[in-house]
Design a protein that fits this description.
The strands form five sheets. This protein has a six-stranded mixed sheet, with helices on both faces. It has a four-stranded antiparallel sheet with strand order 15-14-16-17. It has four domains: about 220 residues, Rossmann fold, CATH 3.40.50; about 150 residues; about 55 residues, no CATH class; about 60 residues, no CATH class. α2 links the parallel β1 and β2. By secondary structure, the chain is α/β, with parallel strands linked by helices. The longest helix has about 80 residues. α3 packs parallel to α5, α8 packs across α12 and α10 packs antiparallel against α11. It is elongated. It has 16 helices and 17 strands.
């Protein structure tokens, strides 16, 4: 029996160790915030700490959280993690920080990178392929989570050695070659992610909420993450997952085992034998029970029953002896024995009676002990039965909750898939009325998203307010012109929104207001030197000098003087040979007078009448 128990113990320990080895899970978490050449990022260190804690609570066998690593430290961390992944079923890498895409290849940026030119990317960063190489030895699941799609400040200052070299706005799309490999981006390829206004980014907060759900398939979990981030960012940031898994559900945290029914109690067989012996109640039965079960609770009860039987046998023997003594005394009295013999018989009878009373008392004591032990047994069995019943109720409740959660998860995943299919359909959304194809977005929200994208590609200068007005329609017209598309400018459609999202940079040329000129991607105010001003062609021209302007009083006095001269009667004076005509008639110009241009009179000296005025003195 003892050897058999040791064998069972050894087998159980081997089974537990084998199960633990089969589910070995490892994780590497990196958060880079303190960059030396660009402004510090607020959340990656906080996000890495939060996600690392999530992996530890989820029961991962190894979780390595590393913050603010330079290029050498990142290489070492990935190399060491690759060694741990060789013995693991699940290997996960989470990276938060800056990343960059160069000619279609993604790179993770350490904190000591400067990236003055595009060629520095090859020397100062680590390609994403290095992280994929580190998780590749895992046998069941290889997962890389990248919260590295932030707006990259390096790309704005980096000098290009080749003008045609492409540097993306976010990270490039990737298709893993290894099976059972998934790569999750915080934002869709070609777009950027937000740090958010809280302590953690919207993507990290959604991860720790959804991934640890026991038994939840990763594809559904990341679908819930996508919905949460879209909701929390006003549909501006959409996480995306690349890669594929097989047909079986793959969860980051295994589902808890569900107990189908009550477990067998090893004491049940002993209890049944004890109750059978209690019904028989003989010394032989209890002796056999103690021989079969020499130790334990029921063995103590059986030994108590044997003591009770022994007390009863002692009492019966004492009663028999007392009866025999009494019979002997009576016989001697009947035979008229001498007094000595009678006294002797009486003493023997009294002693036998005393022994009988003592045996009776001992029997009662043993029966009380046996009854108390039996009561304790019943109470203990009732307590055990209550514990088992409560455990069964709790296990059923847990099983029901897990089944409900799984059903809700499947329903939510189905609804998310239907919503995504509706978004990808070719149904156009009018700016004034919602449609059945997009029940989750109002026309105002659709117009606001389209305006935001038009602003990003440089076709709209006004704010994104959701009002699809004339400036918004003109901005879509500009996009059609420079992108070669033919979208209806009167509608804020999802087709136009999807087409604009695929454009990584500016589409419409930068047009500045009057008084400003284009300088790179910004408008700079035009400043002219002293004495010059900006004309309608946005060029500096000299300010013309102002000519003296006659005042109102001077003009009035001149007109009155002219009227007085014209209306004065003609006096006989010597003439100059010229003729002057006015309302009173024509006459020669008087001596001492001369004709000047202006007035209402007419003068003719060469045959051509002209408007003249006669001035004398």
């Amino acid at each position: 029996m003892r050897a058999f128990r040791w064998f069972l113990l050894f087998f159980f320990m081997w089974l537990v160790c084998s199960s633990a080895q089969a589910g070995h899970r490892v994780a590497l978490v990196i958060g880079n915030s303190a960059y030396k050449s660009v402004p510090r990022l607020a959340n990656p260190a906080n996000d890495a700490t939060l996600v690392g804690g999530m992996f530890k609570k989820a029961g991962f066998d190894s979780v390595d959280v590393r913050l603010d690593l330079n290029v050498g430290e990142m290489r070492k961390a990935l190399r060491e993690f690759g060694g741990r992944a060789r013995d693991a079923e699940v290997a996960v890498i989470y990276y938060a920080g800056h990343g960059i895409e160069l000619d279609g290849t993604n790179y993770l940026i350490p904190t000591d990178a400067t990236l003055e030119t595009d060629s520095d990317v090859l020397d100062e960063t680590l390609p994403l392929d290095r992280a994929m190489f580190a998780v590749e030895p895992a046998k069941q699941l290889r997962l890389i989570i990248l919260d590295a799609c932030r707006d990259n400040p390096f790309a704005k200052t980096m000098k290009r050695t080749i003008a045609s070299r492409a540097i993306g706005r976010g990270l490039a799309k990737i298709e893993p070659a290894s099976p059972n490999t998934m790569i999750a981006f915080a934002a869709k390829a070609g777009s950027t992610a937000s740090d958010g206004d809280a302590k953690n980014s919207p993507f990290a907060a959604a991860l720790v909420e959804r991934l640890p759900t026991p038994g939840l398939d990763l594809r559904k979990a990341f679908g819930f993450v996508r919905d949460d981030v879209l909701k929390n960012t006003g549909n501006k940031q959409e996480p995306y997952v690349y890669g594929s898994l097989g047909g079986d559900d793959v969860s980051l945290v295994p589902a808890k085992p569900v107990v189908a029914g009550p477990q067998a109690n090893p004491q049940d067989a002993i209890r049944r034998d004890y109750e059978l012996a209690l019904q028989l109640g003989s010394r032989e039965v209890w002796t056999a029970f103690v021989a079969q079960y020499p130790d334990g609770f029921y063995a103590s009860l059986a030994k108590g029953q044997l003591s009770r039987i022994g007390a009863e046998e002692a009492r019966a023997a004492a009663a028999d002896k007392a009866k025999q003594a009494e019979d002997e005394r009576a016989r001697l009295a009947a035979e008229r024995a001498n007094k000595a013999e009678q006294d002797k018989a009486a003493a023997a009878a009294k002693a036998a009676e005393t022994a009988k009373l003592a045996a009776e008392k001992a029997r009662q004591t043993e029966e009380a002990k046996a009854a108390a032990a039996e009561q304790r047994r019943k109470e203990a069995e009732a307590a055990v039965a209550k514990v088992l019943a409560d455990k069964l109720v709790a296990e059923k409740a847990l099983a029901n909750r897990i089944a409900t959660d799984k059903a809700l998860a499947e329903l939510a995943a189905k609804q998310a898939a239907e919503k995504k299919a509706a978004i990808d359909s070719e149904t156009k959304v009018a700016a004034v009325a919602p449609t059945a194809a997009q029940p989750s977005l109002t026309p105002n929200e659709t117009a606001k998203l389209l305006q935001s994208e038009l602003r990003r590609v440089g076709c709209l200068a006004t704010a994104a307010d959701g009002d699809w007005n004339a400036p918004s329609q003109r901005s879509l017209t500009l996009f059609n012109k420079y992108a070669g598309t033919k979208f209806d400018t009167k509608l804020a459609s999802f087709d136009a929104l999807d087409a604009i999202k695929t454009r990584p940079g500016r589409v419409c040329p930068l047009i500045c207001e009057r008084g400003f000129r284009v300088d790179g991607d910004a408008c700079v105010k035009i400043t002219c030197r002293a004495g010059y001003r900006v004309n309608d062609d946005n060029e500096c021209e000299k300010i013309p000098e102002k000519k003296p302007i006659a005042t109102r009083d001077e003009t009035k006095n001149r007109d009155e003087q002219r009227k007085q001269v014209e209306s004065a009667p003609a006096k006989p004076q010597a003439t100059t040979g010229q003729m002057f005509c006015n309302g009173a008639g024509c006459r020669p110009v008087r001596s001492g007078c001369k004709l000047v241009p202006g007035g209402s009179g007419l003068a003719s000296g060469d045959g051509r009448p002209r408007a003249m005025m006669e001035v004398c003195g």
